[in-house]
Amino acid sequence: HQHLHTSIILTLLNFLGKTFSDEDENIIWGILEEAAKDEYLPVIQALFAAQRGISRRSRFSKGKSGSQLSKLKSSSEETFERFVKKIQFKVLDHPTSLEARLWAWSNIDYKHCDMKKLYEKAQEECAHFDKEGNTLWEQAFEKMILIYKEEKTCSFDIIIDIIKKIMSRREDIDLNENGNGNDNRHDLPVYHRIQRILTILASHIKTFDEKKKVEFQSITPVILQFDKTLAYNLTIILIRIAESKEDLEDILQNLE
């Protein structure tokens, strides 16, 4: 039954935007919206074009999905954009499956969705410290890094604002931990997440162009104001930005 459902979704993708009546079109959109809430992962995967990290069992259907969505994109940019906004984006809020939501964060076609809404949702996920947030935040953050890297007009502010949003949770999360007698910074959720973010950023530095790299320097006062014990993690980023001995000396001097 579930395999049949996946096949139906793949077939419907082929007819999207090609029906002879509004009624038929609405029926297709309705089925796709329901599919975005399906608990069977291959059905969710069928709504996205990417094919990495999939099981052997679903590889064939995913290949077909990628093909159908590529055809849809080339035949009607408007319909494809509607599909991303209405269907793919919906999976980010899947009611029961964190696996489905992770898949959506990894594979959503961000260039055709509402960037403001996507960014707000990423910021929201990154600042959550419940089971959902702990599972999803890193993938959401990676998506924002990808957008920052690929979009020339995208400012580093999208990263800074996420970091500040996470930091704003310190009082009601980390300080509560301290109130319970926990003085180890590395056991504090907000501190640990900021530290992890610095590690992630450091791992991506080499993939950015020079202009984007320079913007990373704006993170310095934000991190040091939050917690000076993160200076070591920050230094790793700044050293990787440095292009010369003089740059390195300036960086180290600013950290003193």
Automatic annotation (TrEMBL):
Keywords: Signal. Residues 1-21 form the signal peptide. It comes from the Eukaryota. The keyword Signal applies. This is Uncharacterized protein.
